[in-house]
Amino acid sequence: MMFFERASDLNQLNIEEIELIQRIRNRTEKYNADNISRTDAYFHYYNRNPEIIWSFLASMVSRNAGWNMCDLEGKWFPKIINKKIRKKLFLTYERANWLIFQDAFPQLLLYQYSTKMNRPMFHLLRYFQVSSFMVKEWRIFWERRCIKRLMISQIINEQNIIQKPVIKHPAYRRKVFQSPLFLLQDWFHYSSVIFPTCNGQLFGASANGFKSLTNRIDLGKRLAAILFHNDLYPSFYEFAKRTVHTGSRYDYEIYFKKKPRRTSPFLRCTFPIIKHKKHKAGDWSKNKRLKRKWLMGNVEHIHPIELTEWYKDKQAQIKKAIYLKEIVEMIR
User: Fold this and answer.
1) Cα-Cα end-to-end distance for the chain
2) What does the pLDDT look like over 88-115, one tens digit per residue?
3) For 202-211, what is each residue's pLDDT tens digit?
4) Which residues are registered as beta bridge partners of 269?
5) What is the pLDDT of residues 228-260, one digit of tens each?
6) CA 326 to each of CA 102, 110, 186, 323, 331: distance values in angstroms, whole numbers, following the listed order
7) Contacts with 163 (C-beta within 8 Å, 6 or more apart), sequence order
8) For 49-179, where are the alpha helices, taking DSSP H only?
9) Counting Cβ atoms within 10 Å, is residue 272 exposed (0-12), middle (13-18) or buried (19+)?
10) Would you kindly state where each structural domain of the chain is located, as residue ranges?
11) Which residues does 35 contact at the CB level (< 8 Å), separation at least 6?
């Protein structure tokens, strides 16, 4: 079924454009089913369109979202987080990633179609409620082929997409982002985005200050600098190609020399498909001034990007904290 804001919209389109919009909407809905389908869709798209490097970044970050979701029902977190809060945390991850995919994937498909037709079709982006900022950036990319600029623009766009409906939404802000658990994770850098390799090494950066839009954009650029580093990229790509994404943290722990026991379940055996309500988001770029800092390509890594031992230490800290909590409760 087709959806247009006004009946006059149909008069502005030819049959080919109407059918294309419908196909893109159908494919977006199909692949936006859950974290697994999103992650795979981003990676398959990157393999077909390697110049759109954001799609590989999105795929690797999406893997992290899956691992964080599954940890909520793994061995450890249920011991310290009640079921109601775990459900809210899952829905927060799910909603944010659904919104980003719902906005980004039509852009990716429309670009791919444009390459097939050898002519830009970005005038159709407005039928997917894509920001005027991204419409302009796709047109610039088509003319200049500035790969890094497009990627940074996509990072800026995706973080603005979730700012109002997730980060600033009263329900999420009160029950998730102002909760003691989230503040603790934020303060101690427990929430990190990790890029694994098949030799057991982990690289990445911490998501400290997650509620800040500027901090999240900066994190995205720092992650991109790590992911596409000339010396590291081949190892990350090898991992993505070799490793089926199940949502379990064990997907990368299997490459450790000393393999730990599985403590994280499979995503599709753990969570149901969520039916999201669509909303008219509006154009964020019409009501917000772009900060010069957002557009800058240079990044600075304040902390080491090799996180293998850091990760193992943090996992050990979490386990000790949970054991201590259980002992205190037994004494009481």
Assistant:
1) 60
2) 889 999 999 999 999 999 999 999 999 9
3) 999 987 777 8
4) none
5) 999 999 999 999 999 999 999 999 999 999 989
6) 42, 53, 23, 5, 9
7) 213, 284
8) 54-71, 83-117, 132-144, 147-162, 170-172
9) exposed
10) 8-331
11) 62, 65, 66, 69, 93, 94, 97, 247, 267
177 in Cβ contact with 166 (< 8 Å): no
Determine the distance from the C-alpha atom of residue 147 to the mean position of all C-alpha atoms in its chain, rounded to a whole number: 19
Q: Measure the CA–CA gap between 118 and 188, rounded to whole angstroms.
A: 49
- Per-residue tokens: 126: 């407005």
pLDDT digits (tens, 9 = 90+) for 259-289: 899 999 999 999 999 999 887 778 999 988 8
For residues 92 and 179, is the Cβ–Cβ distance under 8 A?
A: no
Contact between residue 60 and residue 227 where contact means Cβ atoms under 8 Å apart: yes
What does the pLDDT look like over 75-86, one tens digit per residue?
Answer: 988 888 889 888
Two tokens at 123?
């005038």
CA atoms of 162 and 211, how far apart (whole Å): 11
Q: Where are the alpha helices (DSSP H) in 262-307?
A: 292-295
- Between CA 27 and CA 31, with CA 30 as vertex, the angle to 5 degrees is 90
List of residues 6+ apart from 17 with CB closer than 8 A: 121, 124
For residue 279, give every residue at least 6 positions away whose Cβ sits within 8 Å of its Cβ, in sequence order, or none. 165
pTM, to two decimals: 0.92
Q: How many CA atoms lie within 13 A of 80 on its CB side?
A: 19
